[in-house]
Amino acid sequence: MSQAEQLLAALGGWDNIEDLEPCITRLRVELTDDSVVDEAALKQAGAFGVVRVGNAVQVVVGPAADNIAEDMEDLR
Question: Has keyword DNA repair (predicted)?
Fold first, then answer.
């Protein structure tokens, strides 16, 4: 399973993602239901950290954020 697939699964899949935007080092993800997010699985998939802000999650993945977001979009 690719890193993008692992991150996507840990976020609850595309059915749970309302918006995905990469920034320099993070994936900013707006969610339908943030209770299904598996932080341990995100870290196993390579996330350096997870920041929760309301119904959104910021997944810290480092400078590869743009590439990871593209890979996740390809799985849509």
Answer: no
> What is the domain-level CATH number for residue 20?
3.30.1360.60
Number of structural domains (the chain) is 1
Q: CB–CB of 69/61 below 8 Å? A: no
Whole-angstrom distance, CA of residue 9 vs CA of residue 23: 20
For the question of whether the overall pTM of this predicted structure is more than 0.90, the answer is yes
Catalytic residue list contains 60: no
In the chain, the largest separation of any two C-alpha atoms, in whole Å, equals 29
Structural domain boundaries enclosing 51:
3-74
Q: Which of 5, 13, 21, 23 is catalytic?
A: 23
